[in-house]
């Protein structure tokens, strides 16, 4: 059965890259990387204009990516997987690995998303970071991130992917802690870094298992070998890849870092922690489809992880008052949707990626809107201190509203075309699964509607709850234009790409074709149920946050709300499960160490000290004596080796 | 001269693949003792220059052996780099440090001489033991790789598979050159003192600008031990050699005046011997 | 004549170089001892290149020469600057390692 499905999934025959555009695809990575190096090395003299170099790099990359995409679109669907060999990377014994790029619909979708949204956010940052003395460094890091992310998605082997994977992790660390002169920011950066390391460990183990069982780590060989490998091996690799994906995409149980990552500047949250980097986990799962196809149990785990995170993020989002943390929770929840879809198999891959793209647009728009609000409100992030901002920030309000409707999944905005499909896909199957997963996705949609509406109403409507000396004002053009572009994208991208299933067809060379399957409920019923839930969620939010007044201090609420405010005690759980036992372990080890080992070690130490006192006489400081010792050692070694050899 | 002719005829007579021709055998047995002799010179010569000359002998002989061993390129490089550049650098530094600084052969470290001798012999014994017990394949010779002449073959390897190492070595050389510059650079702590500065200092201190006067020449006395008289008739004590003054062998102007007869304008009190003691020299 | 005679010669030169490093006190002569050791290694490489019929050995010797040249430059610079500071080129006067 599994083999049959794999045959359907057999990727289109891979061809070498041809044409000027495709063979120069390496510039996609090189341009931002060079720009980052330039900005870091140029020094103070580039302070005045360096950020425009930083904006130009992803812009150029976008133009190039568009060219490559068009050149692929020009060919037949069967020829849309191209490989570009760069150089022989690791010729080490039985591991021979070439560094190369893989140009196919999946990677190019990411390239376009990353560079397009990235360029907009770069433009936005020019104004947002205007008063920051180290704006040049900021742009260098952003460019470095773009380069690493493009390397991640374009890599043609897991090892090269891992290079990009670590690169984006580093960029994320540097940018979360960009204002590291304040301790909480530095701590947040460290937390993100450490939790990502846990995931990276999974990636490393997966790499090792792959090498042990397939003798290679490049996509082509591994995917060719996957159908013939045992289910156990595939499950192990899949679960390890999933662990990696969980770390990078802030999925349960490695989700705790994302909320704190909001300590970084808002453009960073928009680009890295909403639109692109955190979706790398979804990319990994979809890219590794041939492996996951052979491990149904691992796929089930993916779906469960996605479902848990989806609900978890939504619940956290319900209660948070920090506007960026609500958006972070929402990101977590939306990536949960994507994971869930990616775990469903070929039926879900295309929609996982599709949702990822639309999510990239509207979530980046939401974050930029939040940044604009913060810009106008003197970096205030507490939503209880907002309210009635509609008339002061009209453009922000309009763009935010479109993105809000998009994330709610109101037709005809983008989110509807993707989230609804995921919910439909979740209802496909037999036995208990479609019911559980479908209902989880459905409830998640309702919760999303409530907390996003809550955020929207608390910020832009209701009564003014500002602190005394705040003068909200609209952001400069450099900030509003990217927001408008993203809002346009949030409104139309989903609908446009859905015409005739254009996006699914485009991805088919990678995700494989799948026959339409009927969900356990009829499609109109699911759509109607979703819409009803969404509208109900929005209505309740309206009643609670517009009709009745919002208290400035958070009221003492139910246990669940309080738990949600504390991120469902995720940090406490982590501390209780890992940190405290770890500390007890180290403490007891220290005790044992002091009482048992140290006594012995001290004895040895004294012995050594005594011997050293004797040996000290050899240490006469004359270089020739030392040389004599070296030669004596050499001679002894030589004699010993010879004696044992013959 | 004989060596030169040997060198010229090498490619024809000695280089013969893996086999050793009788010419090469002869060359080896002539050169090997010479090289050991030169090397021992390094070990035993009292003067550093002699040691350096011994090493030069060894290195030139090595160049011959390289040529004999089908490595004419290395032979030339050996002469140019080692004998021509490295050893000349050594000799320069020897001159700089003091060429007659002969090394005392008295050993200062207790037992070092025995330890060194034993270790040196031990290394020699162990290495020769290894070589004597090892079995080598029949030598293949370099006829095939050297088909397009040896430099071309070597160049193919260097600029082919080893190009990266080659570039790195280039970087290393530049770094070393810069390092040597930095190491031997001396920071100027005081301003440079040239001829002009010296002259200025002399004028400023009010010293004598003209040369010293010659000793006294009188009508009847023409001697090194008599001070000259200045235009006003006063004796110039510095004109008498410092040595004579220290020894107390100078004659004072008064003594001479008695013979010459009152031409001097000096008062007797001015020419007390105490006045012309040590320290009057500018 | 057997080619291993070259190897024996190289070994002898190497041992003499070692002994020089151990026994002489003039830093320059010690340094020449090191050069002698490098040269003997080169002779070994060239001989093995001939035995194996592979030019890689000669290339290796070439690299040894280049690196040795760099080493000489730096080493002599150090000796000169030490001599300037201490008016001595004896390795035994530089027992700062002890303190």
- Counted beta strands of chain B: 2
Unreliable spans of chain B are 4-14, 268-282
SSE arrangement of chain B, N to C? HHHHHHHHEEHH
Radius of gyration of chain B, taken over Cα atoms and rounded to an integer in Å = 36 Å
Oligomer: heterotrimer
Tally of structural domains of chain A: 2
CATH superfamily membership of the largest domain in chain B: NADH-ubiquinone/plastoquinone oxidoreductase chain 6, subunit NuoJ
CATH architecture of the largest domain in chain B: Up-down Bundle
Structural class of chain B: mainly alpha
- What fraction strand of chain B? under 5%
Structural class of chain A: mainly alpha
CATH topology (level 3) name of the largest domain in chain B: Four Helix Bundle (Hemerythrin (Met), subunit A)
> How would the global form of chain A be characterised?
globular
How many extended strands of chain A? 3
What count of helical segments of chain B does DSSP give?
10
Give the overall pLDDT of chain B as a whole number.
78
Rounded to an integer in angstroms, the radius of gyration calculated over CA atoms of chain A is 27 Å
Uncertain stretches of 5 or more adjacent residues of chain A:
1-12
Biggest β-sheet description of chain A: 3 strands, mixed
Helix content of chain A: over 70%
**What gap, in angstroms, lies between the N and C termini of chain A?**
60 Å
């Amino acid at each position: 059965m599994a083999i049959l499905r794999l045959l359907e999934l057999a990727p289109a025959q891979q061809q070498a890259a041809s044409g000027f555009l495709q063979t120069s695809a390496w510039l996609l990575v090189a341009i931002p990387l060079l720009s980052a190096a330039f900005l870091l090395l140029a020094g103070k003299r580039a302070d005045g204009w360096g950020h425009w170099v930083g904006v130009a790099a992803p812009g150029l990359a976008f133009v190039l990516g568009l060219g490559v995409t068009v050149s692929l679109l020009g060919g037949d669907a069967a020829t849309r997987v191209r490989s570009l060999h760069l150089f022989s990377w690791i010729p080490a014994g039985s591991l021979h690995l070439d560094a190369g790029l893989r140009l196919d619909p999946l990677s190019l979708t990411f390239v376009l998303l990353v560079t397009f949204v990235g360029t907009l956010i770069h433009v936005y940052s020019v104004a947002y970071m205007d008063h920051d003395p180290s704006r040049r460094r900021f742009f260098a890091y952003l460019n470095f991130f773009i380069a690493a992310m493009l390397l991640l998605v374009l890599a043609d082997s897991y090892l090269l992917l891992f290079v990009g994977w670590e690169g984006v992790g580093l960029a994320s660390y540097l940018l979360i802690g960009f204002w590291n002169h304040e301790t909480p920011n530095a701590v947040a950066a460290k937390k993100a870094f450490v939790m990502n390391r846990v995931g990276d460990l999974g990636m490393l183990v997966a790499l090792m298992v792959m090498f042990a069982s397939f003798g290679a780590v490049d996509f082509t060989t591994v995917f060719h070998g996957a159908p013939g490998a045992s289910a156990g091996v595939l499950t192990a690799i899949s679960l390890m890849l999933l662990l990696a994906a969980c770390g990078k995409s802030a999925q349960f149980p490695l989700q705790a870092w994302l909320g704190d990552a909001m300590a970084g500047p808002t453009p960073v949250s928009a680009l890295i922690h909403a639109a692109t980097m955190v979706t790398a986990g979804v990319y990994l799962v979809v890219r590794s489809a041939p492996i996951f196809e052979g491990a149904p149990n691992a796929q089930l785990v993916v779906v469960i992880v996605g479902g848990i995170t989806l609900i978890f993020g939504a619940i956290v989002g319900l209660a948070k008052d920090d506007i960026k943390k609500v958006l972070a929770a929402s990101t977590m929840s939306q990536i949960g949707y994507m994971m869930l879809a990616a775990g469903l198999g070929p039926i879900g891959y295309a929609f996982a990626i599709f949702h990822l793209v639309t999510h990239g647009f509207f979530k980046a728009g939401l974050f930029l809107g939040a940044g604009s609000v913060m810009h106008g409100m003197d970096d205030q992030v507490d939503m209880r201190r907002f309210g009635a901002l509609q008339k002061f920030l009209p453009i922000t309000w309009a763009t935010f509203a479109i993105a809000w409707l998009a994330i709610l999944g109101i037709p005809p905005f983008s989110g509807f075309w993707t989230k609804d499909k995921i919910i439909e896909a979740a209802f496909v199957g037999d036995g208990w699964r479609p019911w559980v997963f479908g209902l989880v996705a459905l409830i998640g949609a309702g919760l999303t509607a409530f907390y996003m509406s809550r955020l929207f109403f608390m910020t832009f409507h209701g009564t003014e709850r500002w602190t005394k000396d705040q003068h909200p004002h609209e952001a400069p053009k450099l900030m509003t234009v990217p927001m408008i572009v993203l809002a346009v994208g949030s409104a139309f991208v989903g609908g446009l790409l859905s015409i005739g299933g254009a996006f699914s067809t485009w991805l088919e060379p990678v995700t494989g074709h799948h026959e339409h399957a009927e969900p356990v409920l009829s499609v109109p019923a699911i759509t109607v149920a979703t819409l009803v839930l969404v509208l109900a969620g929005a209505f309740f939010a309206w009643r609670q946050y517009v009709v009745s007044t919002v208290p400035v201090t958070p009221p003492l609420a139910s246990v669940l709300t309080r738990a949600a405010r504390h991120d469902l005690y995720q940090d406490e759980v982590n501390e209780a499960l890992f940190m405290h036992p770890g500390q007890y372990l180290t403490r007891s080890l220290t005790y044992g160490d002091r009482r048992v080992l140290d006594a012995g070690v001290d004895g040895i130490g004294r012995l050594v000290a005594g011997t050293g006192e004797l040996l000290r006489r050899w240490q006469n400081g004359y270089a020739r004596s030392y040389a004599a010792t070296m030669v004596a050692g050499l001679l002894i070694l030589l004699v010993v080796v010879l004696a044992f050899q013959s | 001269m004989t060596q030169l002719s040997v060198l010229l005829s090498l490619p024809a007579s000695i280089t013969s693949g893996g086999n050793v021709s009788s010419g090469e055998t002869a060359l080896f047995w002539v050169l090997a003792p010479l090289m050991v002799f030169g090397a021992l010179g390094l070990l035993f010569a009292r003067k550093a220059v002699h040691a350096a000359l011994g090493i030069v002998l060894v290195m030139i002989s090595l160049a011959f052996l390289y040529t004999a061993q089908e490595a004419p390129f290395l032979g030339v490089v050996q002469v140019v780099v080692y004998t021509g550049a490295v050893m000349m650098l050594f000799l320069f530094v020897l001159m700089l440090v003091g060429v007659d600084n002969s090394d005392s052969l008295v050993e200062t470290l207790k037992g070092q001489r025995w330890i060194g001798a034993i270790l040196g012999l031990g290394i020699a014994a162990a290495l020769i033991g290894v070589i004597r017990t090892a079995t080598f394949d029949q030598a293949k010779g370099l006829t095939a790789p050297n088909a397009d002449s040896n430099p071309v073959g070597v160049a193919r390897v260097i600029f082919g598979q080893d190009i990266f190492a080659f570039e790195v070595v280039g970087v290393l050389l530049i770094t070393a050159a810069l390092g040597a510059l930095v190491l031997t650079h001396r920071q100027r702590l005081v301003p440079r003192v040239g001829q002009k500065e010296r002259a200025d200092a002399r004028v400023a201190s009010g010293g004598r600008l003209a040369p010293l006067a010659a000793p006294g020449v009188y009508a009847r006395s023409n001697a090194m031990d008599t001070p000259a008289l200045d235009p006003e008739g006063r004796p110039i004590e510095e004109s008498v050699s410092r040595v004579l003054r220290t020894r107390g062998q100078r004659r004072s102007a008064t003594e001479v005046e008695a013979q010459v007869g009152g031409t001097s304008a000096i008062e007797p009190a001015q020419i007390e011997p105490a006045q012309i003691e040590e320290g009057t020299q500018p | 004549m057997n080619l291993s005679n070259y190897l024996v010669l190289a070994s002898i030169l190497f041992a003499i170089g070692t002994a020089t490093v151990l026994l002489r006190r003039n830093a320059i002569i010690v340094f020449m001892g090191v050069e002698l050791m490098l040269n003997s290694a080169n002779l070994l490489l060239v001989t093995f290149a001939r035995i194996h019929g592979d030019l890689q050995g000669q290339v290796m010797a070439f690299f040894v020469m280049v690196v040795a040249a760099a080493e000489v430059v730096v080493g002599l610079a150090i000796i000169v600057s030490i001599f300037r500071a201490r008016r001595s080129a004896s390795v035994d006067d530089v027992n700062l390692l002890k303190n």
